């Protein structure tokens, strides 16, 4: 058996294990692939994509008819979709965007269905490079296709909008999210406080902090740090110090940033 055939056999084995929810064993197989490969992650990724196209996810075996994609469209595919989403997530965390898109395109060619996690990873990838237009397009697309965004999805979009300076649109999305029953969490508010603070709009950032209290949420050091940083950017060190004292009064500990 040649090396490429051996690598593909390992890829198929990893997919079978994932389809059976034996993720730790699948991880061990991928680790072996990494050890035996001289071409690095790119070679392994190509092998996984190729195997994904040739795999019958419904029955859990290699598919001799490559035109039959039924397995990717049935409930039996869920475990393998988890595997794909997990890899997309890992590639994002490692900031391997080129590999992310190569693997995602492989999923498209294999007719792999999308769920809320897939769409959220796509949105994250677009905003990661500052492409707010595409990030928002994917959000609208998932809703049109009947896939409801999660709180995490909305937080990714809100964070992405804040990073590109579109804080007003981010805040409007937060209000829309609340109306839909996705109640903002500490992370949502912290993102917005940071976004408004970096725009030197600290009055609004402070109002967002106060809204957190009114909703029964306790700001953490991230939210306070963002507000303190905002006042410092604005040149108001006195108010920054006052916010620091308020933070201490609420039992939030100092970190090195505040010392």
UniProtKB/TrEMBL annotation:
According to its UniProt record, what is one Pfam family this protein matches? Answer: PPR_2
Extent of the PPR repeats: 115-149, 150-184, 185-219, 220-254
Is Repeat tagged as a keyword?
Answer: yes
Lineage, top-rank taxon, reads Eukaryota
Keyword terms: Repeat, Signal
The region annotated as signal peptide is: 1-26
Keyword Repeat present in the record's keywords: the answer is yes
Stored Gene3D superfamilies: Tetratricopeptide repeat domain (1.25.40.10)
PROSITE patterns noted in UniProt: PPR
Which family does this protein fall into?
Belongs to the PPR family. P subfamily.
What is this protein called in UniProt? Pentatricopeptide repeat-containing protein
State the species of origin.
Salix udensis
């Amino acid at each position: 058996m040649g090396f490429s055939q051996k690598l593909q056999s390992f890829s198929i084995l990893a997919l079978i294990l994932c389809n059976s929810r034996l993720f730790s064993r699948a991880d061990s197989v991928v680790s072996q692939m990494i050890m035996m490969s001289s071409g690095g992650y790119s070679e392994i990724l190509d092998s996984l994509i190729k195997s994904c196209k040739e795999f019958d996810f419904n029955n859990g075996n290699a598919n001799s008819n490559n035109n039959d994609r039924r397995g990717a469209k049935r409930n039996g595919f869920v475990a393998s979709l988890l595997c794909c989403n997990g890899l997309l997530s890992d590639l994002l965390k490692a900031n391997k965007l080129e590999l992310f898109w190569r693997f995602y395109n492989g999923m498209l060619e294999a007719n792999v269905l999308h769920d809320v996690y897939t769409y959220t990873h796509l949105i994250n990838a677009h905003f990661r490079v500052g492409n707010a237009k595409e990030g928002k397009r994917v959000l609208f697309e998932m809703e049109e296709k009947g896939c409801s965004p999660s709180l995490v999805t909305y937080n990714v979009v809100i964070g992405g909008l804040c990073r590109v300076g579109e804080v007003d649109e981010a805040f409007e999305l937060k209000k829309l999210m609340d109306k839909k029953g996705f109640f903002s969490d500490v992370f949502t508010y912290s993102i917005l406080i940071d976004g408004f603070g970096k725009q030197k709009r600290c009055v609004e950032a402070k109002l967002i902090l106060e809204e957190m209290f009114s909703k029964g949420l306790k700001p953490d050091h991230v939210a306070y740090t963002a507000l303190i940083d905002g006042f410092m950017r604005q040149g108001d060190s006195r108010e920054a110090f006052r916010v620091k004292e308020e933070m201490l009064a609420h039992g939030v500990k100092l970190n090195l940033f505040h010392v």
